[in-house]
Design brief:
alpha+beta; 7 helices; DNA-binding; globular; 4-stranded antiparallel beta sheet
Length: 280
DNA sequence: CGATCTACCTGATGGC
DNA sequence: TGCCATCAGGTAGATC
């Protein structure tokens, strides 16, 4: 599912393809994707005529900054969260490209390209907001661009029980989901179920290094596309980091480091994978 | 305060 | 082959 590396990959693609373009037309399919609006037309009106000035990301939230809007001089931002099954696509052929099922939002630019939001499970959403985003204010620092130092990371995790619960808590650091929590724990040689307060200083240091290492490698390979093929980049192509996963969803393949049996269990109501030989 | 559970959805999968 | 139950997981919100 889209976590920080996948959202960052989409952001970098968007940065290349839509910055400087002006939105000409917005077409809505299912309204659940714009559920924050009583009047979905308000979403359309906020976008049409706006020019994309830059892109940003905090955790798994994608930010598309808008300027040059005729009706409003304030800085506005199109916020996109892909949640479980959301995809952003810019198909070749623009508006004429065949429509995939579950295409809920189409944003047509002045150069003929079209950005499409496709989301079978409709957990994802889009909305336009001004610079004061109360929802984003509750997020911790971004795990890739603003990772706290070792000491602060330990402070922020204090009092949590399982390590994976802490890594998934977006108020501690934001951007890590189930896949990368498992991979980071493996790289740090620590089991995801370990109690945070019982970790040694060396464990926290390894964890800190593993966050940067794993996220960096995953971004380089354009993210993880699992067997369900749900995540793809703007170009529709899969990311290849899943081939480098060492434990996540590898019950049938074994640990990619030592070949040992991968154990699985439930932590924080989601499946967790770890290697009992590599991780203590 | 933190932990746990549920709701939100659809498509894929497995058992019978 | 068809039908039903189960699972996948990011986040908010309720509850313990």
């Amino acid at each position: 599912m889209p976590e920080l590396p996948e959202v960052e990959t989409v952001r970098r693609d968007l940065e290349r393809f839509v910055v400087g373009r002006t939105i000409e037309q917005v077409t809505l399919g299912r309204l659940r994707s714009v559920r924050r609006y009583d009047e979905p037309q308000d979403f359309v009106d906020a976008l049409v005529g706006a020019r994309i000035t830059s892109t940003g990301r905090i955790g798994k939230y994608l930010l598309v900054n808008l300027g040059g809007h005729q009706s409003n001089l304030d800085e506005h931002t199109l916020v996109i969260h892909l949640r479980m099954s959301g995809q952003l696509l810019m198909p070749e052929g623009g508006a004429n490209a065949p429509l995939l099922p579950h295409t809920h939002v189409r944003i047509l630019f002045d150069d003929g390209q079209e950005l499409r939001f496709v989301d079978p499970r409709t957990f994802g959403e889009m909305f336009v907001t001004d610079a004061s985003l109360p929802e984003l204010a509750s997020l911790g620092p971004d795990a890739w661009t603003s990772l706290p130092d070792v000491k602060e990371l330990r402070e922020r995790m204090k009092g949590r029980r399982a390590l994976k619960v802490a890594l998934l808590d977006q108020a501690i650091v934001t951007g890590i989901g189930s896949i990368y929590a498992d991979e980071i724990c493996h790289r740090a040689l620590v089991r995801p179920g370990r109690t945070v307060d019982r970790l040694r200083p060396i464990d926290i240091e390894r964890l800190h290094a593993a966050i940067t290492l794993v996220l960096g490698e995953a971004i380089e390979l354009r993210g993880s596309t699992l067997g369900d093929g749900q995540y793809v980049g703007l170009d529709g192509e899969a990311g290849t980091y899943a081939e480098r996963h060492r434990v996540h969803a590898r019950t049938n393949y074994g640990c990619a480091t030592c070949g040992g049996v991968v154990k699985t269990g439930v932590i924080a109501q989601r499946s967790a994978y770890w290697c009992p030989r590599c991780q203590k």
